């Protein structure tokens, strides 16, 4: 993988607080990378350092092969970076089109191209019909979409998204992921922080988990499973009567009076034999659940905390 | 970049009707109230402590010298007979009538007393014509005129009482008959006492104790002709400078500062909303951001002053639309606006929150406005407060506007009248630089940490 963005040995201290303690990550071309961590873990500091808003005490950062370490590296070096903050950083008195135009110009979109880019963004966000309305009248989801559009209007190769779906309804969230899929199709690489673990698991190519300023795990979801809780699925069987005592053992565990649980590595191979076993013992299966391992479980395993703690 | 920042600021202001109202309408309301209250009255009051009064002796006699000395002896005034000497320059000539008139006209002094030729010859002539003492005064401060008039009468009594006694006796003999030898002997003894100054104790030290009130008791000893220093302009323009110009400047500058503080608060609002963070993540550097905001606030400030003075011209007959006044107004308003804009940005950089800024700016602006003359005219303040005003933004800005609209020399050329503003323009420009440097240094907290 050729990284378009890499951070190595990043250290940053704010007074007595060590925000980054050797954090590192690499973002490949066209890759989606989720940066997860409990509150205060250092992920916002890391993203702000990449965006040029935090100066590292030590460490190395490169963007498209160019170093970002130089103090003067602000402006051209980051032209290929799009930053979408968690705050709705828009001008509420300005219309959607005026916000897009302003942020586009501030990110260096030439005046000759700005009109076309604004039209594209309005279409992309589904806000064409609201283009001339002040943003202060928009719903949360509409503002969130516009917030993203303002950060990518200059067609950056790398986009940093800080909680892009926070505080929006499920429909708007789905719309936002569709929008991001569009720019993925154009080849953009995304680094995003999120509290939506299910979404991170579904849409991201790789996941980096950070805690106490250090990366404690990184890889694809499957790699993280292997590194932590394993890929075993949990099968829960509800019976219509109390299970026979002989089922209690290494394979089955009695969860309560009428429920049994067991873990299997390969469900396609093992499930038929498990059901046959129950049937042979005279137990009638009333219900059956198969739970796949989740990123939430991995996260708790690694950090000992829920993500929202 | 700066053009885009200007456009963003303009659209924000245009759509915020409350901010627009606070910027442009509220100052007009306040100004109008002050103008209606004070505009027709030309009121003022006397400054406590001694005031500098120009003394011009055109008579050059012993009596006129004594009269000027007696005037100088009054606690309430100090007589100056020549302009302040400047370093490496020859000793300045004593004031003539014209130079005294100009000094009052241009606001260097509030009043001048001109002792005319023939003053001694007619001094104490109660029955006939007397040479009139001219009292050249600034109509902005009419009370000073009345107080100095009283002091002139008191001084006349103490300057040459023997001569006054001679005049009085002559008058008595004309209408009441000659004195007896015994009466003449008593009068001669008393005159000798008056000449040697023993009268002071006998009369309860009238010279030392003279006040405006005691002066009025002697009204009529000397004939006084009050002359307005603005007379020439009044004659040619059909009305002299009006107190309205004072309040246009005073209220205008005070509200300008409030508007700029509010503009500074907008910068803090950007910080709180996250747009500042986003701006600084774009191509906009801190210098560009501050420069863009400063330029926009300056333009708004200039527009605010222009609206204020135009309103004054249209509604209250403020004499704005003459080439000299327009040029002076433009120069003063430009520099005042850029300085006030820098002040607003500095406040934003100093304060950590909008609440903090609102509190600090209200106190600072009200204090500066009170000391600097935006609320109460400077001539109504004690002398030491006039000095204090020089440490305030309002003081210097008001001085400049008053030079343009009140104390401008009508005979001066356009260039000369603009050059007379150089001290005020220079100080305000200096303040601008200081404010901007402080703002830039403190704005580091918004940069990468």
Protein architecture, described:
- The complex is a heterodimer of chains A (309) and B (449).
- Chain A contains 9 helices and 14 strands.
- In chain A, strand 4 (58-63) and strand 5 form a beta hairpin.
- In chain A, helix 2 crosses helix 3 (111-125) and helix 3 packs antiparallel against helix 4.
- Chain A folds into 2 domains: 3-227, 3-Layer(aba) Sandwich (Rossmann fold), CATH 3.40.50.300; 233-292, Alpha-Beta Plaits.
- The model of chain A has no long low-confidence stretch (mean pLDDT 88).
- With 309 residues, chain A is an alpha/beta fold.
- In chain A, the strands form 3 sheets. Chain A has a 6-stranded mixed β-sheet, sandwiched between helices.
- With 449 residues, chain B is mainly alpha-helical.
- Chain B has 2 domains: 2-40 and 242-446, no CATH class; 51-236, abc type-2 transporter like fold, CATH 3.40.1710.
- Chain B has 21 helices and 5 strands.
- Chain B has helices spanning 2-15, 17-39, 62-72, 97-105, 119-122, 142-159, 161-176, 181-196, 199-202, 206-209, 212-217, 231-237, 243-273, 275-281, 286-316, 323-350, 354-372, 383-389, 393-405, 414-419, 422-442; strands at 51-57, 77-80, 111-115, 133-137, 224-228.
- In chain B, strand 1 (51-57), helix 3 (62-72) and strand 2 (77-80) form a beta-alpha-beta unit.
- In chain B, helix 2 runs antiparallel to helix 13 (243-273) and helix 16 (323-350) runs parallel beside helix 21.
- The longest helix of chain B is centred in the middle third of the chain and has 31 residues, at 243-273.
- The radius of gyration of chain B is 28 Å and the shape is elongated.
- The two termini of chain B are 23 Å apart.
- Residues 40-49, 198-219 and 234-239 of chain B have low confidence and may be disordered.
- The A-B interface holds A 14, 51-55, 74-75, 78-79, 83, 85-91, 93-94, 98, 102-103, 105-108, 134, 150-151 and B 1, 4-5, 7-8, 11-12, 15-16, 273-275, 277-285, 448-449.
